[in-house]
Design a protein that fits this description.
Strand content: 25-35%
Order of helices and strands: HEEEEEEEEEEEEEEEEEEHHEE
Keywords: Disulfide bond, Glycoprotein, Immunoglobulin domain, Membrane, Signal, Transmembrane, Transmembrane helix
Shape: rod-shaped
CATH class of the largest domain: Mainly Beta
CATH architecture of the largest domain: Sandwich
Helix content: 10-25%
Pfam family, one: Ig_C17orf99
Protein name: Mast cell immunoglobulin like receptor 1
Organism: Propithecus coquereli
GO molecular function, one term: transmembrane signaling receptor activity
Distance between the termini: 167 Å
């Protein structure tokens, strides 16, 4: 039993010394025993002020390895690890902080370097602005969508949506100009909601525009009816104005002529003429009264005139009893007088 234990102890000691000599001998160490470390990050695209983590790892999981990080050849820090990656936390505040970075894995006097790693600093996009242009016919509508983000590192990819459903492929723009998407569809009479998305190479910073609602008139609409109806309405209005003008103008002229023909003597209040004032004459003709032939009057300003018309009645009497009428001789012939 003791002989067996001594044999195991001998071989264990021999293996440990052999392994240590192999580790110490960097020149004779094989590449697969101690390969170059690997330096990586979860993302290589960052924005200014962002915190990042760098991982340095060697595939040899049995050795105690010392890892050191460098930027532009400048030493940044050291960590020890066995069998798992070590993490270096950094802040990218300026352009020089973007790299290049290198990691060194070292075992005693044997050290190896990783490949260089650089970060790309990108400015995030801002919320894009969506505009909608609609050209509508009787049965169809032609829609043009424009989307642009005024800030953000190029290139920027734009995608258009209708009610959260993608209706366009990603449209990439390498210049600061709006992305455009056109389509045609039938009039449905329903409201349609559109929005667009803007993103660049910076992850987790996608921005969306406000929703834009467009109302359709439906298939029974007539967008050209107003254009056809407008000339007819103008023609009817012109005819109506002409009819009113020809109807009112003669009345206005007649009224104006009547005012000019009225006597201008403001002192004249009335002109009266009587057929007879003899009661005997009135009694000889039943139901006949003394009547006023004509009455004209002027107001104080002489502008407005009021004319009263009367129909005097004449009958034949004895020549002796007739009155003189405006110095006319008896026996003159009388007729209806209208003034």
């Amino acid at each position: 039993m003791r002989s067996h234990l001594n044999t195991l102890l001998f071989w264990g000691t021999f293996s440990s010394v052999t392994s240590q000599n192999a580790v110490l001998d960097c020149g004779t160490m094989k590449t697969d025993e101690f390969p170059s470390p690997r330096l990586y990050s979860e993302t290589n695209v960052v924005m200014k002020g962002q915190n990042v983590s760098l991982f340095c790892f060697n595939e040899n999981k049995s050795l105690q390895i010392t890892y050191s990080l460098f930027r532009h050849g400048k030493y940044l820090g050291t960590q020890n690890g066995t069998g798992k990656p070590v993490i270096f936390n950094l802040n990218i505040s300026e352009v020089p902080d973007s790299g290049p970075y290198k990691c060194k894995a070292e075992v005693l006097q044997c050290g190896k370097y990783s490949r260089e790693l650089n970060f790309t600093i990108v400015e995030p996009v801002t919320a894009p602005v969506l505009s909608v242009t609609v050209t509508q016919t009787e049965t169809e509508r032609h829609v043009t969508l424009h989307c642009i983000s005024v800030n953000g590192s190029l290139p920027i990819n734009y995608t258009f949506f209708e009610k959260n459903v993608t209706i366009s492929p990603a449209i990439s723009k390498n210049r600061r100009e709006p992305a455009e998407f056109n389509f045609t569809r039938k009039n449905s009479g329903e409201e349609e909601e559109y929005r667009c998305e803007a993103r660049n190479s910076l992850p987790s910073h996608t921005k969306y525009s406000w929703l834009v609602t467009v109302t359709s008139t439906g298939g029974g609409g007539c967008p050209f009816c107003l254009q056809l109806l407008l000339p007819g309405l103008l023609l009817m209005l012109t005819v109506t104005v002409l009819i009113l003008a020809f109807w009112i103008l003669p009345k206005y002229k007649a009224r104006k002529a009547m005012r000019h023909n009225v006597p201008k003597d403001r002192g004249e209040v009335g002109i009266y003429a009587n057929i007879s004032n003899d009661p005997a004459d009135e009694a000889s003709v039943p139901d006949v009264e003394s009547r006023q032939c004509v009455s004209t009057a002027q107001d104080g300003a002489g502008d407005a005139q009021e004319i009263h018309y009367a129909t005097p009645m004449f009958w034949e009497v004895a020549p002796i009893e007739q009155e003189a009428c405006n110095d006319y001789k008896p026996g003159c012939v009388y007729s209806e007088l209208v003034i």
